[in-house]
Write the structure tokens for this entry.
Amino acid sequence: MDTIPLIHLQLLSAFLFVAGLATVLLRRNLFFVLMGVELMLNAANLSFLAWSRVQSGASTMEGQVSPLFSIAIAAAEACVGLAMLLAVFRSRESLDTDAYSRMKE
């Protein structure tokens, strides 16, 4: 069976990371900002797994522990982030990031 070359996986990972970074920097909606952070974490996971496959072969589990922990941390971050987003939305009734720059008022 043919395997995907490492350069293709790294380019895909870089594209996903840049797309997530652009989402975080350009969007004003907090929900989309959280989605951009998740996209960047998944790009890093893809890169970890690609390097793991090149370094140790496809059949071993070495190098796949880091993405496992990263996925667990991303799930916890998503839960906490969405809970905070809902709590702030109930008080401000807006998801615009500019509305939260005036939290002291």
DSSP finds three helices and no strands in the chain. The longest helix spans residues 65-92.
